[in-house]
Amino acid sequence: MSSVTIKDVARVAQVSVATVSRALNGHGNVAEEVRRRVLAAANELRYTPHAAARSLSSRRTQTLGVVLPDLHGEFFSELVRGIDQVAREHRLHLLVSSYHGHPEEQGAALRAMRGRVDGLLVMSPFVATPGPLAEELAPTLPTVLINTQHATAGVASLHVDNYGGAVAMVEHLVASGHRRIAFIAGPSDNFDAHERLRGYRDALQRLLPDAEEWVLPGDFDEASGHQAGLEILSSKHRPDAVFAANDMMALGCLFVFAQGGVNVPADIALAGFDDIPLARYVHPTLTTMRVNIAELGARAARLLLAQIAGDTAEVEAQGREALRPELIERASSAPEPERR
């Protein structure tokens, strides 16, 4: 049987070859009904575009590059899930790379993407000067930065309002009657962690000016939350509540409390940040600040596609937006009156 061509798809769908090409490549100037008809025809005929020929004709790789500090943990899996959802809608592939939390390896990861992708999504959450990152970004390659401290000229960015989210959590804990609130911080060189710590400190000073801050070191993983929990249990005076800078540390702390006979929230309330899927399936369910992580990835991918398409109006509309976290009250932070 002879191979199916794009002309065959156009004939079955009763549209032009150019329309088939636009529909299969995810261009926005195709009516949705026409796009569905083209996709149905392509599926019926089992048509597969010739990747090499398409790349040569369009000078596109049909691939988006994603460079992340790590791939371990639910945050990154949710982020990639959101990116991948948008990529699949546009029949694109992902090339994902990690620099394993080492800023010095970031440049190598970025350079490895050149010539292989049509655009880049880069997460660089380090508290550092923008020089090294800016120097490694190819000026002709569309790029979107995610949760990056420093704006880079001509590069769109999306970030989470980590400061506002931390303030909202402290406000919730204080409104629930808690007065001695400990905070498990994230890595000292991480911008997200820096902003969440700043929000905790500012809110505590404003709402409880006579209270002393209690900051324990953490590393955004279960092990550091576990260690912080051990330190809390060994303290002479325990806190009313513990606010962890992310859910993974909160869950590590929760495990220690359970092992140590501490009832959450009757003895100590507990809260996290991010709302990873596991947060709603532990006991007690975890109060947290919901960052729609998959939506953050999806928005970043849509913004990148707008750049690739040259849609400057859409890029300006979406660029440099802050994603606002949402307070999710669950069983781990019952108000003080309910804990007696």
UniProtKB/TrEMBL annotation:
Region: Disordered, residue numbers: 319-340
Basic and acidic residues bias locations: 319-329
Listed SMART domains: HTH_LACI (SM00354)
HTH lacI-type domain span: 4-58
Keyword match Transcription: yes
Keywords associated with the record: DNA-binding, Repressor, Transcription, Transcription regulation
SUPFAM superfamilies: lambda repressor-like DNA-binding domains, Periplasmic binding protein-like I
Pfam families in UniProt: LacI, Peripla_BP_3
UniProt GO molecular function: DNA-binding transcription factor activity; transcription cis-regulatory region binding
PANTHER family in UniProt: HTH-TYPE TRANSCRIPTIONAL REPRESSOR CYTR, LACI-RELATED TRANSCRIPTIONAL REPRESSOR
Entry protein name: LacI family transcriptional regulator
Organism ancestry: Bacteria, Pseudomonadati, Pseudomonadota, Gammaproteobacteria, Lysobacterales
